[in-house]
Each structure stands twice: as C-alpha cells, then as structure tokens.
Amino acid sequence: MKKWIVGCMMALGLAGGAQAAGAGFPLDKAPDRVTDMAALQHGAKLFTNYCLSCHSAAFMRYNRLKDIGLTEKQIKENLVFATDKVGDVMKATINPVQAKEWFGANPPDLTLVARSRASGAGSGADYLYTYMRTFYRDDTRPTGWNNAVFPNVGMPHVFWELQGERKPVFDEHQQITGWEQVKPGQMTPEQYDNAVGDLVAFMQWMAEPAQTSRKQMGYFVLAFLALFTFVAWRLNASFWKDVK
Q1: d(CA 218, CA 145)
Q2: What predicted TM-score, i.e. pTM, was given to this entire model?
C-alpha cells in the first residue's frame, strides 16, 4: 500500500517537463546498459514495483520482456500485478478518475519518457539518471522532498528507503556543489547508483526495444554501401579505361 501511494505521487514529478528541463542543474552521464540483460531484468523489476502503480507504459506489453531474457513464467510470477495476462500492455492500477481528482491530471505514460526528456543538456537517460539521484529532504515542501534537477518538485523520493536521506551542500551562489548523507539507506551510494542505472537502462530499452537490432542493421547497411561503392568505382574505371 505504501509503494502504491508513493508511486501515485510520481505523477507530479514527471509531469512538468518544461520546468524540469529548465532547471539548469548539470546532468550526469547515465551508464550504457541497454544491451545488458541482467541490468534490464533488474530495471524491469524496479519499474513494475515502484512506477507501474500509477504510471502506465501503454505501448509496452509484458510478453515483450522475453526480449530481455525473461520467460513467460518469470514474467507472470514476478512482474505482472495489474493483470492476469502476459499479453496485456503495462497499465497502471490507479483509477484515472481518482488520479485526476487527486492530482489534477492523470500520471503521464512512461513508455517513451527516456526519449522525450532528451535536451541540449543531455539524453533522456541522463535526465532520468540524475533526477532519481538528486532528491533531498526539504521541510518547506508539502511532501518533505525536493530535487536538484526539478526544483520544487511535487513528488516525494520514491526510493528514499534505498538511498537514505541526504541534504545538499550549497556554495555562496546557492548552487549545489555536493551532498551530505543524513541517514543511511538500505543500499550504499554505489549500490543505489547502480540500481538507478539499471532502472534507467530498462526505461531506455522500453522506449525503443528494437534499437539494438536497428543499430546492427545500420552497420550492415553502411558496410554494404561501402563495398558497393568500391565495386562501382572499380567497374567504372574498367569500363572507361580505353576511352580518351
């Protein structure tokens, strides 16, 4: 029930893209794990447990998770909570009417969030990776939490039990220059960063499951074009060598 309530409030944090993008906080580079099956599986577990209560991924079906090495049995027993069919799309369990009444708008769909958050400051994965790692306690906020990437964010820290509580260190210009751990979490800072990296990797994969095969096909096409260009060049030289 606790995760369900916290997950619902994530809508307030991810709904305001324009404000978040303009915060000006430098983004950290997200680790590239989009082809790491173990990381993607762990990320899928985090996503279904912490995000899917309120945020749908309406363009992704559960059975597509077979592409990251999960069996249908594993999907059904460990990841499917909102439906009995692994062929269904990932829909949030929250009632959209209640969500609109509570928050003023339905929580946004997260299928493409790892692509839609891209900006001149970094990729969408960089945004999510930094966002989920820069929450801090702020008693002036209704939820008790604030965020360096999205100042005055409306959502609490959904992973606070894992990361613990931190407070920012400000310079004379009120810019965040570092962090001070106030209370430890269930994970060490390295473990938490690794878990967020896995979550972001899954969301990055979910935004375009065919990206790996697309890139492989692109390399093949480029190699073919290079070979074809060489053959055409040599044929052209052969055909025209006696023409003066």
Answers
A1: 44
A2: 0.81
